[in-house]
Fold:
Amino acid sequence: MILPPLVINVRVYEADKTDFHLWLPLFLLWPLLLVILALVLVVTLLVDFVSFISGNRYRHFTLLVLNSLLLLAAVRGTHAHVNKPNTLVDVDIY
Amino acid sequence: MTEDRKRILGLLAEGKITADEADSLLDALGSSAGEPSPASASRTADWPKGPSATGAPKFMYVKITGKDTVDVKVPLGLLRAGLKLTSLIPPQAMDQINDSMGEHGMSFDFNNLKPEDIEELISSLREMEVNIDTNEGDNVRVFCA
Structure:
C-alpha cells in the first residue's frame, strides 16, 4: 500500500542569522484533499465519458489525476541534509 | 590533515598552548569545517554505504563529503510514478514538452517509454555508481540501493 506523505520537516539554520524550523503535519490536510479529489474525479469521469462518446482518442483525465496523486505519494521518504560551515539545511518528508 | 590542524598540533608540540587549549581549538576547527552535526550523522547512519548487490533499488543516494556535507535520499518510486504519468499526458501537451526538450538539446520522446522499460531502467540503476574526487578534497558519490 502506498501511503502519502504524512509529515514534512524543514529546518534552515544560519549562524547568527536564521533559525527556521517548520514541522508540517500533512496528514491533517488529507481529509480536505480527499473531498476535493472526490469532486475532481466526478468531473474527470464525466469528461472521459463525453470524450468516449464523442470518439476522442484521449480519455485518460481520471487516470492522469490518480497518477498525479501517486506521484505526490512517491515523494514520501525524501531526505536532504546539507551541512556547510555555519549553515544547516534539513528537509525530511515522512 | 589540514594546515590548521598541523599548526595547532605544532603549537602544542612547541609547548605554546596546553593540551586543553589544543583540544578546544581542534573542536572549533571541526565544527567550522562543516563536519556533520551528531543529529545529522545519526539520521544518515542507517543509509547504505554503496550500491546494493541484489534486488531492485529503492532509493537514489547523493553524498558529498569534504568541506561541505550533503546527504540526499530520493525514492526511485518518484521516478517510476513520474515516468508513468508522462504516458498519460495529453498528446498535444506531450508534443510541446518534447519540442521544448529538443530545443534544450534533449531529443528524447517520452511516448516511446513503455512500463516494462521503466522497470528495466530502474533495475539497471542498481549497477550505476558515480564517484568523483575533486581537487578541493570533496568526494561526490551517487548510487542507488
